[in-house]
Amino acid sequence: MHNNKSTQRYSTCCIIKSVLYLSQAALLNRTMKLLVLALTIALLFTAGEALNCHRCVSKKAGGTCELSVETCKPGKDGCAAARFLREPYGQYQKCMALSDCEMLKTNAYINMKCCSDDMCNTF
């Protein structure tokens, strides 16, 4: 009979440990679900925000243009403003890949401004 009580205590102890373990696992599972949900919502807000740039591209070199707003498409991660320092002395503003914009800065005959904030491409 003494053996039966010992087995019963051991069984109760194991049940309590199992319940505590399952409670911790459930809490961890709930925490992980909340973390995944929060990260997903954060990504939706950041991925949903497209960059807006000034757009002014003349139809002919050196001509005038009407200023408008352009929402940048994927692959165009920056805004650019260019002023040509030789004839026909035109300029443009538009969305552009930042790597392309930085490359154009090396041209001595173009004054380039490259940026990545909304509507930042002005001189």
From TrEMBL:
Domain of life: Eukaryota
Record's GO cellular component terms: side of membrane
The name this protein goes by in its record: CD59 glycoprotein-like
